[in-house]
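Per-residue structure
===
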Amino acid sequence: MAEDHPKKSFAERLKNKYYFIIRKEENFEEKLSLRFSPIGIFLVTGGIVVLLIVLVIYLAAFTPLREYIPGYADVNVRRNLIIFSQKTDSLTEALKERDAYMANIKRILNGDAGESDSASSKKLQPADSVISARSKTVAPPSRSDSMLRSEVESQDPYNLNLRNITSSKSGESINDYFFFCPLKGVITNSFAPAQGHYGIDIVAKENEAIKATLNGSVILSTWTLATGNVIIIQHDNNLLSVYEHNSVLLKKTGDYVKAGDVIAIIGNTGELTTGPHLHFELWYKGEPVNPVKYIAF
């Protein structure tokens, strides 16, 4: 009768030793012999798997290969986005401050600086153009306006020769002046103050020079979001000329220019432009006038 062997547990069976032998077919000569157990195979396989997992994690976390893994963002992208966002906010604030400054200049030039300045200055709307959205009814210069003008004139480093400009002969009128044509070209948009267009648009060849229409002093030479590179000249007898959308400004604030002097180059700058042209305005005693009546373009 066969002798009964006790049944081994699963843990004991994992410890059983096995041989893997390779023999030569002709003479059964042993060529390779491997001794192993099931638990040994399990441990070796598990170790290899763990090693591969650690290697993949290292490559994904500490090498440039992580950028090629779908859904894994570059660590520098967020930093760059934050920097660009801060720069955008700074530029936006700078543009708002410049537009507010331009609005104040416009109010001073038009003599519209009454007692309501303190309330309206708390919330200034960005100017669509250098002297756009003018009020048709211009209030007489107030006491605060007169004090500001006196203070500016008394400061030599920033003196714009306003004494010589405003001390014109009382008998002169706009019809007594000979205006120099600022730019020869085709008028594509005429004078229409009712629609908020206070000047004319002149189209000419690229890189054409823009000239001063009369003798005067440059009171503004800057860049705005709406009008691009703009230059404003104050002339005698409360005359004011405006030149907008220039590509290059050749005169700076405070410069004195003569009629026919080159002050800028025709351009296409600013949001309110649809192509290379000059937007030219002429103001007389705080009111816009049609330049075509006095200048042959």
About this structure: Residues 10-62 form one domain. Helices lie at 10-14, 38-62, 75-109, 117-120, 143-154, 162-166.
